[in-house]
Design brief:
Layout lengths: L1 H9 L30 H33 L5 H11 L14 H32 L1 H14 L8 H8 L2 H26 L3 H10 L3 H39 L4 H10 L3 H28 L6
Length: 300
């Protein structure tokens, strides 16, 4: 019994550790989301004034200089006289009293029609030609001296050629618009094609893409911003040229209307026509600039 008791005493006793539950630590409360403070009415008003005030000062300065020149000259109508004539003129801008007596609205539309036709033909010829010159170095070298020779020629120098060929004033004016609009589209499109990374063209060659797919899938999306820049420059030049061309050819158009009002000694109508020409040109260029920004990938 003593030996057995001794062994029982010497045997190690294993004590299982009692698991102790860790005290629950409360999770930190989520921080409230930062809310952008609403724009204060005062800040919004200051922003609007920053945008509106400078142009208003510019217009006021122009009108002030115009009034001073009118007072000193005596021959140039002032802003008040021009405003009265403009109210009367735009009360019925689309009247018709014969082929050579029409409202200013019809004259502007006739000029826009000539610009649209000449500009459309220039786009149909100039944009594909720009792709070819930018894509093929041989054609670029072949046409470069021709373009360099003809591009600096004044657009009005082409008007007698148009009268000689077409024997009519209307197509001659359209021809003048065509020849002055085509150069910016050719040069800008060709430059855009030449700036396409060579890696893109190497991938197309590896994939075995046809030339038509290279142009439509690779070149056209990359060249579109350059093309629209050329179109914007062309439309501005075309609108400038049509006024001078219509002064020489006659007929219906804003240029002819200006010359006719000069013959009638209605100087205030000439001043009104200057503002109308400027506003129409500004609208055309702004619309094309908005389209160009839409397709400018760097601005996205």
């Amino acid at each position: 019994m003593s030996a057995i008791a001794l062994k029982l005493v010497e045997a190690p006793v294993k004590v299982e550790p009692v698991p102790v539950k860790a005290a629950a630590v409360p999770a930190p409360a989520p921080e409230p989301a930062l809310v952008e403070p609403a724009t204060r009415p005062g800040e919004r008003l200051r922003e609007v004034l920053r945008v509106v005030i400078p142009p208003l000062f510019g217009v006021a300065l122009l009108i002030g200089i115009w009034a001073l020149v009118a007072i000193k000259s005596g021959n140039i109508p002032g802003p008040d006289k021009t405003w009265v004539a403009a109210v009367k003129l735009f009360a019925d801008p689309f009247y018709q009293n014969g082929p050579n007596d029409q409202g200013i609205g019809w004259n502007v539309l006739s000029s826009l029609q000539r610009v649209g036709i000449g500009f459309g033909f220039a786009a149909l010829v100039g944009i594909p030609m720009g792709f070819l010159l930018g894509r093929f170095a041989f054609m670029n070298r072949m046409f470069e001296p021709i373009i360099s020779l003809l591009r600096p020629v004044s657009p009005l120098a082409w008007l007698p050629i148009g009268l000689l060929v077409f024997q009519k004033a209307d197509p001659a004016a359209t021809w003048t618009i065509f020849i002055c609009s085509i150069w910016p589209m050719i040069l800008n499109t060709a430059q855009g094609v030449q700036r396409v990374p060579q890696d893109y063209l190497n991938v197309a060659r590896v994939l075995g893409l046809s030339e038509a797919k290279v142009i439509t899938k690779i070149l056209f999306p990359a060249v579109l911003p350059y093309m629209l820049t050329g179109i914007r420059l062309s439309i501005g030049t075309a609108w400038l040229v049509i006024v001078a061309a219509e002064m020489l050819t006659g007929g219906v158009g804003i240029g002819f209307w200006v010359w006719d009002e000069w013959n009638n000694l209605k100087v205030e109508h000439i001043v009104i026509a200057i503002f109308v020409i400027g506003i129409v040109g500004l609208v055309l260029e702004t619309l094309l600039l908005m389209i160009a920004k839409r397709f400018t990938y760097e601005s996205r």
